[in-house]
Here is the input.
Amino acid sequence: MEQAITKEKKYRIIDWCWLICILSFVGFLVENIWNIFTSGRVDNRNMHLPFILGYGLAILGIYLFFGTPTDNHGLINLSYKSNKVFLYVSYTILVTIFVCINELIIGNAMEYLSHIHYWDFSDVPLHITRYTSILTAIAYSTLITLFMSLLFDKMMTWLNGFSDNMYRIIGFTLIILLIVDLFISFDTMIKNKDFNLIWHIELFKKES
Here is the structure.
């Protein structure tokens, strides 16, 4: 058995690698679906590979800080409360704050290093600077709370059922490739002071 991320849950490191990769791919798809509705196109989302590592890493961070809604064995422990409504509401609020802080840090860091606006929520009500907004953060945190409550443990249990060497080799190789791609892509944006647009497909013209 490999070393677990936490003492309470026996989730293997390799299972975390796979979950992070899966969610990073889902994040890539979600952003492009949003892109279709807002600009009528899909693109590489500044990465070389069809993964956005931040989505997978965000779930890892949320688990380490807050656990799951009803099993708060993270750094902030609310599991002494038995009221499920309190647990879910407080969990969503904590994740909302987590999302806002991370969006502010990443957005401002990229603006400082590359002089680009990585994303812009200026037109969204209740925005806090251009890089985060209360409404979008609540939307993200609600989806995350539902995922952590309904799917997280099921997915990790399913992944734990794989034990062959190929599963480990592919998982570790993939997570390394995603990390390397993240550094290369961000380095490209910082050096060029521009987005790392490699490919895009115009599906339709968005009316102005």
DSSP finds six helices and four strands in the chain. The longest helix spans residues 84-114. Residues 13-202 form one domain. Residues 71 and 79 are 6 Å apart (CA to CA).
